[in-house]
Amino acid sequence: MSLDLSDVTLTYPDGDDRLTALDHVTLHVPRGTLTAVAGPSGSGKSSLLAVAATLVTPDAGTVSVDGVTTTGLSRAELTGLRRRTIGIVFQQPHLLPSLTALEQLQLMASIDGRSPAGARGRALELLAAVGLADRAGRRPHQLSGGQRQRVGIARALMNEPTLLLVDEPTSALDHERGAAVVDLITRLTRERGTATVLVTHDRTHLRAADRIVEVDDGRLGDPPSGSGTSVGYRPQGGVTATMSG
């Protein structure tokens, strides 16, 4: 199991009070499966991703990534854990305009202390996996929106993470390109064996998930009736998981 949130509560200051962003959340995401997270704006989806990414420390509960419990880790240790085991795909890919698609990926290896030249082979392999083998030398302004998003996905996988966190990857794409990006994330989840959490506002993309959870006022629950989605893992190779909260 690569991601385990257990009884997590997160609050933020709100004047003289505190606002509850996550309320006793428990979520287990096994490797090789994709869990989709849906819910209205302000429901706690972004807070859930921030806690899973170890960017925010919850008030209570535990977070484990790839078997490592993050409670008590120093800032440097958390940074190292994110660099080695967590890949993040943002709503906007935030590519560096001066770098080619290949160099965007090689930069990730450099940040991890590896030689960019030595990482060239893996970078080219990932670009091929996302269908951009022939765009390796292109800079962001020479790529379409969907292609830039695919570079962002490949970049997130560069350091071989076991946990992939994806935040609204289709928000700037039309439906057809958005569906292609979600299909790509689903395929790479299976092939790379990542535990993937996908936050999306577009419920038409939820069918690709092994599991769907709804966030409402910081709590996890079933998708609303009539949403056309269902809760519960579709087992991949006999893998199962549970969700409470």
Automatic annotation (TrEMBL):
**GO (cellular component) term, any one:** plasma membrane
Q: Does the keyword Flavoprotein apply?
A: no
Q: Which Pfam families match?
A: ABC_tran
Q: Which InterPro entries match?
A: AAA+_ATPase, ABC_transporter-like_ATP-bd, ABC_transporter-like_CS, ABC_transpr_LolD-like, MacB-like_ATP-bd, P-loop_NTPase
* Location of the ABC transporter domain: 3-242
Q: Does the keyword Ribonucleoprotein apply?
A: no
Q: Where is this region: Disordered?
A: 215-245
A GO MF term:
ATP hydrolysis activity
* Keywords, in A-Z order: ATP-binding, Nucleotide-binding, Transport
- Annotated SMART domains: AAA (SM00382)
Which residues span the membrane?
none
Could you identify this protein by its name?
ABC transporter ATP-binding protein
Name the source organism: Streptomyces monashensis
Q: What is the lineage of its organism?
A: Bacteria, Bacillati, Actinomycetota, Actinomycetes, Kitasatosporales
